[in-house]
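I would like you to sit down with the pair of lines that follows and say whether C-alpha cells and residues agree.
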Amino acid sequence: MPAAPHSNWLKDHWPYLFGAALLHVFIAGAFVLATHAMRRETPPPTLAIQAVVIDANQLAKMVPNRQQELERERARREAEARAAEERRQREEAAKREQELKAEQERQEALKRQEQERLRIERERAEQERIAREKAAEEQRKREEAERQAKLEAERKRIEEIQRKQREREEAERRRIAAENEARERALREQLAAEEELMRAQASGAMNQYVAMIQQHVERRWIRPPSARPGIECEVSVTQSPNGTVLSVQVGRCNGDQAVRQSIEIAVQKASPLPLPPDMRLFERNLRFIFRPAD
C-alpha cells in the first residue's frame, strides 16, 4: 500500500525526470567533448568554442520544447486524471445514489410490509373483536334465554304450588265441611239413638236384656266350695257385635279369689252372649251384677 503514491508520482512526473536526465547527458557530453578537444595537439579553439555554443543553443532550444511537451503531457495527464477522478466521483455518486435509491426502495418495501402487517393485524384484531362481541352477544342471549326459562319454570312452579295449595285448601274445606256435616249427622243420630235408647230403657227392655245375660252366665257357673251365700259381684264384659266375649273382669265382689275365677270362667263359657231383642240396646262394654241364687 505505501508504494502506490510513489508510483503515481513517477507516472505523473516522468517527463520532467526524463528531460533532466537528458539535459545532464548533453552537459556531460559537451564536457567530454571540450576536454577531448583541449587534449588535442592543435586544437582549433574557435571551432571547439563554436561547437560548444552550438550544442548549448540546441540544448537551450530543446530543453524548453521538451519542457513544454512535458508540461502539456502533464497537463493532459492531469486533465485525464481530473476527468477520471470526476468520472470516478460521478460513478461513485451514481453508485451512492443508486444505493441510496435501493435503500430507499428497501425501506419503502419494509415500510409497505410493516404497513401490510399492521393492516393484517388490525383486520385480525377487528375480526377477533367482532368474533368476541358476537360470542359475548350469543352468550348473553343464551344466559337471557336461560334466565327467562328459569323465571318461566319458577312461575309455573309457583303457580303449581298455588294451585295445589288451593286444591288442598278446597279439599280441606270440603273435608271440614263433610266432617262437620258427619259430626252433625252423627250427633243427630246419636241423639236420636239416645232418645230411642232412653225410650227403650224406660220401657224396661234394657233391664230384660241385662237379666237375660245374667241368667245365661249363672246357668254356666259352677259354685266353688268356698262360696258363701249372698254372693254379689260386679262383672265388666267386652263383647263383639255378635255377642262373642272378648274380655271379662270381676270388680267389686264379696267372694274370694276362687269365686272370682269361677265367675270369669262362667262368662267365658257363656260366650256368645245373647243379643238384645232391640239392637239399639246393645252395649259393647256391658256391666252387670252377678247374684246367683243361694
